[in-house]
Amino acid sequence: MSDQLDEQAREVAVAVYGPRFEHISRYVDIVTRRGIEWGLLGPREPERIWSRHILNCAALSELLPQGTDVVDIGSGAGLPGLPVAILRPDLRVTLVESLKRRAEFLDLAVAELGLGDRVRVIRGRAEEQKLTPDVVTCRAVAPLDKLVRWTAPYLLPHGQLIALKGERAEAEVNEHAAELARRRLSATVMSIRAHQLAEPTQAVVVRRTA
Ligand SMILES: C[S@@+](CC[C@H](N)C(=O)[O-])C[C@H]1O[C@@H](n2cnc3c(N)ncnc32)[C@H](O)[C@@H]1O
Predict the structure, then answer these.
(1) Spelled out in words, what is the top-level CATH class assigned to the domain 58-208?
(2) Which end of the chain lies in a sparser environment, N or C, as judged by fewer CB atoms within 10 Å?
(3) What's the pTM?
């Protein structure tokens, strides 16, 4: 992705984030400076930060009901949890990250972004948590069967697991159909985008069938 294309994506993000654009820009600054210094983000990522990361994650927003508790597992440098929390002040967001250094980065970012009243960080493994979120989110963390195994115990009757999966979404659902059926879960692939001018991405939405 060239700098020019990412500049266009940044313009789209201005429209998506509106009055919160300055806030998301502060996160971009943190993640493209300290995130790289700390080795959390690859050196090529700043040139595609808006298109590949911020808008991609913001696309999730359309699937998240108002005022809900969201748990983002395997947040890494805060994706998708922090762009979503900034875009949606109605949400309470928990970032679960197993690696100490990444969790420390997240603690610092949450404090610097002034999000501490509704975003918390848990350093630990997703499968060891006792949480009751309305929605679990994740991106680039594990194959679908593993995600389901880890999070099914805390999926409420109305709850959802939403995994950003990109092009492999449909294939993963087919590969893991037996595991889903065994756990009485159903999965739907949805094409979502943050804005009509943004690239669409694929999300797998998992719910209880009974
Ligand atoms: C490839 S990174 C993706 C980070 C971020 N979600 C993104 O899209 O940029 C995967 C992250 O998941 C974390 N992780 C892997 N297994 C985990 C588990 N069982 N519980 C919590 N975090 C986990 C890793 O430490 C890493 O930070």
Answers:
(1) alpha beta
(2) C
(3) 0.97
